[in-house]
Write a structure and sequence with these properties.
single chain; 326 residues; alpha/beta; 3-stranded antiparallel beta sheet; 15% strand; binds flavin mononucleotide
């Protein structure tokens, strides 16, 4: 057992959260991660009340959390009511202004998780009284920025130790096995949030062709780009890019964003049709650099148990690196 402030605060067995991945993290995945001892988060994504209600029902009685893309939630703030009505274990906000939503989450007595990509985001999350701060490095699949996990986590840990020592720290971006979990704890995190590895699980809402694509990929196969957002007509705030698999779509349009914008209507229809069909070349295939550490699609519980067992073994052997004096 790896017991940390995170496991104690959330009443979970393992210091692992599954990421609220838009379109991919439904109720089955979240429930499976919670059942295996972590905490699963449903991905509220770009917002659809019916989809959310269905996914909460899929999770049955399991204690789960939920996450939103904050700038998108601002367009449909009523989705927060839908999520809070479920009484989630935690509510995660990423990518946008926290101030309009944090008070409602606190008033509901729900733990606020804020995912941060920069130190300025960390300062904003402290201001919003986040209970848990996720530091997301650029290795991560999906949207993010350019800081690396290896420096962002300890820098934020030092800062939080001085200004908000009770705030829990979670590392995200590139964690896919026990080595990543053990390393994150050494960097000062209380746990990890894992996206890509759970995207490649049986319970994730992911097309089988996309699962085949990650198994054929390595960590060199991805790119950070805004092209999928232009093609989907999503108005992401400046500075955020998405890490996706390099394919015909990114090779055609990355660096040609103005041309893509000029053809946005046609390209949006093509992108949507390709994504729904599981076409891996003409739409975004959403995973991070952890692809190079993934060679199987398995139940999320099996994945989680293996990550924790390996981290436990590494941490218990860590003493071998200590040179005894005298
Ligand atoms: C397919 C996919 C979709 C994602 N969608 C969201 C999202 O809707 N909201 C969010 O906060 N983070 C989202 N993320 C980012 C995750 O929260 C997390 O930071 C990331 O997956 C961690 O890095 P990893 O993929 O290397 O595990 C997404 C990630 C992936 C892979």
């Amino acid at each position: 057992m790896i017991s940390t402030r995170l496991t104690e605060a959330l009443g979970i067995r393992h210091p692992v959260l599954s990421a609220p991945m838009a379109l991919a993290s439904g109720g089955r995945l979240a429930a499976a991660v919670t059942a295996a001892g972590g905490l699963g988060l449903v991905g509220g994504g770009y917002g659809n009340a019916d989809w959310l209600t269905t996914q909460f029902a899929e999770a049955g009685n399991q204690a789960i959390g939920c996450g939103f893309i904050t700038w998108s939630l601002a367009i449909q703030p009523e989705l927060l009511d839908v999520a809070l009505a479920r009484k989630p274990q935690a509510l995660m906000l990423s990518f946008g202004d926290l101030a309009p939503f944090a008070p409602q989450i606190h008033d509901a007595g729900v733990t606020l998780i804020c995912q941060c990509q920069t130190m300025q985001h960390v300062r904003d999350a402290v201001e919003a009284k986040a209970g848990i701060i996720v530091l997301q490095g650029s290795e991560a699949g999906g949207h993010g920025m350019s800081r690396a996990t290896l420096t962002l986590v300890p820098e934020a840990a030092d800062f939080l130790a001085s200004v908000a020592p009770d705030t829990l720290i979670v590392a995200a971006g590139g964690v896919a096995d026990g080595r990543g979990l053990a390393a994150a704890l050494m960097l000062g995190a209380d746990g990890v949030l894992i996206g890509t590895r759970f995207w490649a699980s049986e319970e994730a809402l992911v097309h089988t062709a996309h699962h085949a694509a990650i198994m054929a990929s390595d960590g060199d196969s991805t790119i950070r780009t805004t092209t999928p957002d232009v093609a989907r007509k999503l108005d992401w705030p400046k500075g955020f890019t998405a890490r996706v698999m390099q394919n015909d779509f990114t090779r055609k349009w990355h660096g040609q964003e103005a041309a893509l914008l000029a053809h946005q209507e046609d390209e949006a229809a093509k992108y949507t049709a390709a994504f729904s069909a599981g076409n891996t070349q003409d739409a975004g295939v959403w995973f991070g650099e952890a692809a190079g550490l993934i060679s199987s699609i398995e139940p999320a519980g099996v994945i989680l148990e293996r990550i924790v067992a390996k981290a436990e073994s590494l941490l218990s052997k860590a003493a071998r690196f200590v040179v005894k004096s005298g």
